[in-house]
Description:
Layout: H1 31-42, E1 58-60, E2 66-68, E3 74-75, H2 90-101, H3 106-113, H4 117-133, H5 138-141, E4 170-177, E5 180-190, H6 191-201, E6 205-208, E7 211-214, E8 222-226, H7 244-247, H8 251-263, H9 271-283, H10 290-297
Antiparallel strand pairs: 1-2, 2-3, 4-5, 4-8, 6-7, 7-8
Helix pairs in contact: 1-2, 2-4, 3-4, 4-9, 8-9
Amino acid sequence: xxxxxxxxxxxxxxxCTPDIPGGFDALLNDDDKAREYLLGLTWPTGDPFCPRCGHxxxxxxSGERLRCASCKYTFQPFSGRWINNGALTPSEWLxxxxxxxxxxxxxxxxxxxxxxxxxxxxxxxAIRFAILAHAIDARQLISxxxxxxxYLKGNRLTGGPKEMRMDTIPVYGIxxxxxxxxxxxxxxxxxxxxxxxxxxxxxxxxxSGNLVYTDRYKDYDALLFCxxxxxxxxxxxxxxxxPHIDAVKDDFWEYAQARIKRFRGISCQRxxxxxxxxxxxxxxxxxxxxxxxxxxxCALVPTAE
Length: 305
């Protein structure tokens, strides 16, 4: 559990608004301007550096390639960054971000951008990973505890989900502090733990599809997990009284539930990506997140330790 509540659940960049007439919208149909803007987010000082070792002395090669003078790594301007996980042009990336902010469906996005479903889906995965990577608890989440580490092969999203069972499906907790929400990975808890507490200690469980959540537990307003078909949902008892988070009409929970239903078919492996997206959207609902997402995409993919 978070010991000290910060001002936001995510790291928010300070300067990411394009300094051109028309602002962000002026970039959406101009690939050259969009690329220049994204490069500015990639190298804020204007000087390229090696994404592998951080050395700032690099040589220009043909075909927009660069080579590090220190480690001799040859790379492209967006190598090693989240934005390199998708076959989109710079302006397509910015238009996709706009559609993502507007909460359009994948089908709406692919029609608007004239791209395939798989291309859009992969790019959205990169956006969601970039959001999660800027959460204050990102290191805990991109790990074997959630299974998200299996999606990353180096700095590329070329991996896949690993199988999850009742004793490996992670549990998350909802913490409310003033107007902010924090979605916390509950260390040492799995779906099996909550079924055990339900059967033996009468912890209230509520099921909505594959989403299972609890009554208040310690400092958490609710614990929750996304299950799969291997779980014994039939043991969940019915209750006349609502759990705490439903009874108090929690605004984040109402916000989240409506969107979780809209996402459709979320797997237990990808569940934390959607949770951290909802956390990010809710906590930054009073600010423009379009430019923030562009900056997130241009950030380096963290290396596993």
